[in-house]
Structures are given as structure tokens and as C-alpha cells.
Design brief:
mainly beta, 52% strand, 3% helix, two-stranded antiparallel sheet, 14-stranded mixed beta barrel, 413 residues
Length: 413
């Protein structure tokens, strides 16, 4: 379960090749809106972390991914250099059920009453740690902490609210861990995040001419934008070799982006004036929320350890989606009014033998879309309960293979 924590200055490189399959396999049946985890936060970011469902990641400090979860944990890595590469195959299944929709004029909407807008996705990540001396360790993380992908059929009943919604992020996170003494370490990291988004929905031109739900009078709106944003992360770690206890706390700042791009309107040939196909410059501000992590790692004996953690996310910063175009058009505004949320996780690890470690975890993730928050098919969500299993297989002194599987269940929303 535990590796020796002293550094002997050897040039050993431990590489972790991680495969995490089915991070969102078989979500619940009969939901009224498609769901994904934690708003548009991606919570499967390293294989070992997924195997214990993020329990105690602010204190675990046993993989180079700690540069993201708590950079202070870099000081506890046992090797001079460590490389952690992972790929997470996310396989969601959802079902949207319509209870009777109408357009702004009160006419019933026509279209498919059931739809599965979830799409499969491969989410890679990369982490590297390099020990400079006994007190200082450098790290680098590249991952995708936020993302969204829904794609509905063009004829589904909610097509005027959304057909395709996509958010892709890439976060580059260099960091440093510094050991202050025998029991305390601190860490600091910088973050450069690239965000790219695309939103599409159908436009009902027929209602403007008294012919709602006329497929020959439907058009499409497309919005694209991209930007870089910057932030920081920091952490503190207490570690006691005598009792096998580690306590960690880490904070990631919010990151502001202004997604600059264009808005394109594709109108049918018979659309009324002044609606014609064309595009204008557009921008939308997106604040990616701050997070706070608390973690506990407790070694019970040489073969068993328990982990626990909680993560707070400042989703209240996501108040609305506002798209600004040129002065000739008013802002397009969709309220959000999300609330801050907490995730709680507990995990267990067992060293089965000198080659195999086993782990498991449970995580409860409360949705930020509650109270007066606005529910939309673009960013659907619900309360989620995760169950995870993981395995480490040591090929040799320089290579570990990690495997993890997570099942997530969510209720109607």
C-alpha cells in the first residue's frame, strides 16, 4: 500500500500508464433531462484517482497528478521522476422524456418526444514530476477539467432550446512543491486554460409567419468562440510518517475567459425580412469556478489504507449565459443562477501482493442546478452517486498499469 518516502537520488523513472473505462457508464433510466457530472466539470482526471472516486486526493500524494489536486503532495512522491499518462473513455446513456412542450405562442411543439443527447468522449491527461533536491519537486499537469458535449437529433422536440452544445478545455498546470520540515509541505501552481465552445439550436421562423412547426420554415443558429484564461492553485499538506496520516487542503482559483468568435444565422429561403443568412462577431464571458479540496489519507497497516475527501465548487459565479454581438442587436441572455455545491467521497486501498493494489470508492455529487436555477438541455445535471473500482499492476520497477471503472447513478431531474 505504501512506498518508501525517502529520496535516494537514483535516476529511477516510474511511469503510470492508465486506462479508465466507462467513467459514465449506464446513467439512470427515465430521466426527464440528460445528465452529466458536476455541472460541466470533468471529475475523472487520473486513473488511480478514478479508482477510488477522488477520495482524499488533496492528501493522497501518490501520483504525479497531485500537481493538479494539491501541489504540496509533490514532495511525497518516492521517485526522482514520475510520469502519469491516462485516457478516460466516458460512455453516458440518458433519456429525455417530454411532458408537453409548447412554443412562445402556446402552440404544441412537434418532434420526437424522447431523445438521448449524450455523446461518448475520450478524455486524456498527462502529469510529470521531477525532484530537484530533497526539499523541492517540480510538476506539470495537462488535462481537461471542464467539458460538455450534448448532441440531439435535429427533429427532437427541444430543438429550439438546443441541438448541439460543446465545451472543450485544455489546462496547462506547472507547479512546485516545497517541504518545509519533517511534517509540512506547501505547493503552488499556475494555470493556463484554453476554452473552445460551440452552441447550436433550431430557429422557428414559421411562428413569425403564423405557421409554427413547419419544417420548411426552420433555420439554425450557430455560436462559436474561444479564449485563453489564467489562474493559480495552491495547497498545504501535513504528513506524519509515524502514524501514516496525511491531511491536505488545496484551492484552485476561478478562471475568467471571454469567448470571442461569431454568431451565424442560417435562415430558410422563405424567411421574412430582415432575417437573412449571415454572421456577426460575438463574444460571451465564461467564469470557470473556484474549487476547495479537503483530504485525508490514513494508513491502517502495511496493506490497508482509507481515504476521505470533500470538494466545494463555487458554481454561484455562473449566473447567466450572455452573448454580445454588435450594437445593432441586443444581448442574448439565458439565466443560470447556479448554486455552490459539495462533493463527498470515501475510498479504500489494499495491497494484495507485491504486484497488485486494489482500490474502490464512493462519491456523492450534488447538482448546482437547484432552487431557482434554470434547467436547460444544454447543460443538464442531477444529483449523482458514483461507485468505482480500480487496480494497479506493477510490470516492473519502472512501469505500473492502472485500470479503473466507475458507474454513476442519477435520479430524475
Amino acid at each position: 500500500m505504501t512506498r518508501k518516502r525517502s529520496w535516494n537520488g537514483s535516476p529511477e523513472v516510474r511511469r503510470f500508464v492508465i486506462t479508465a473505462v466507462g467513467a459514465l457508464a449506464a446513467i439512470c433510466l427515465d430521466v426527464h433531462e440528460p445528465v452529466e457530472a458536476g455541472g460541466f466539470q470533468i471529475t475523472s482526471l487520473c486513473g488511480k484517482c478514478q479508482g477510488r472516486r477522488n477520495a482524499g486526493e488533496a492528501a493522497a500524494a501518490d501520483t504525479a497528478a497531485t500537481v493538479f489536486y494539491n501541489p504540496a503532495g509533490l514532495t511525497q512522491l518516492p521517485n526522482e521522476r514520475e510520469l502519469d499518462v491516462s485516457g478516460h473513455w466516458i460512455v453516458p446513456w440518458t433519456d429525455y422524456g417530454d411532458d408537453g412542450s409548447s412554443n412562445p405562442f402556446g402552440a404544441p411543439l412537434l418532434g420526437a418526444r424522447h431523445a438521448d443527447g449524450a455523446t461518448n468522449a475520450l478524455v486524456p491527461s498527462f502529469y510529470y514530476a521531477h525532484r530537484v533536491d530533497r526539499r523541492v519537486v517540480l510538476g506539470l499537469g495537462v488535462n481537461a477539467p471542464y467539458g460538455l458535449s450534448t448532441d440531439y437529433d435535429d427533429d427532437w422536440v427541444g430543438r429550439y432550446h438546443g441541438t448541439k452544445s460543446e465545451l472543450i478545455t485544455v489546462n496547462i498546470n506547472p507547479g512546485i512543491g516545497l517541504q518545509l520540515g519533517p511534517h509540512f509541505s506547501v505547493g503552488l501552481g499556475l494555470n493556463a486554460l484554453y476554452a473552445d465552445t460551440e452552441l447550436r439550436n433550431a430557429v422557428d421562423f414559421g411562428s413569425l409567419q403564423g405557421s409554427p412547426n413547419d419544417p420548411d420554415r426552420e433555420g439554425e443558429s450557430r455560436l462559436k468562440g474561444e479564449d485563453w484564461g489564467y489562474g493559480w492553485n495552491a495547497g498545504l499538506l501535513y504528513h506524519s510518517g509515524e502514524t501514516g496520516t496525511r491531511l491536505g487542503v488545496s484551492y484552485r482559483s476561478s478562471i475568467d475567459t471571454t469567448l470571442d468568435g461569431n454568431s451565424t444565422l442560417i435562415a430558410p429561403p422563405n424567411a421574412p425580412a430582415p432575417f437573412r443568412t449571415g454572421n456577426v462577431s460575438a463574444s460571451s464571458e465564461l467564469e470557470l469556478p473556484a474549487t476547495l479540496r479537503l483530504g485525508l489519507y490514513q494508513r491502517l497497516n502495511d496493506d490497508w489504507a482509507v481515504l476521505a475527501g470533500a470538494t466545494w465548487t463555487e458554481w454561484s459565479s455562473f449566473e447567466e449565459i450572455r452573448v454580445k454581438t454588435d450594437d445593432a442587436f441586443p444581448d442574448l441572455v439565458q439565466p443560470a443562477n447556479w448554486r455552490d455545491n459539495w462533493r463527498f467521497a470515501i475510498g479504500l486501498e489494499h495491497r494484495f501482493n507485491h504486484r497488485i493494489d486494489l482500490r474502490g470508492g464512493v462519491e456523492y455529487d450534488r447538482t448546482p442546478i437547484r432552487g431557482n436555477a434554470v434547467k436547460t438541455p444544454r447543460i443538464p445535471d442531477t444529483n449523482l452517486t458514483w461507485l468505482a473500482l480500480g487496480l494497479t499492476y506493477r510490470v516492473d520497477d519502472a512501469l505500473d498499469l492502472e485500470f479503473a471503472y466507475s458507474y454513476v447513478h442519477g435520479g430524475e431531474h
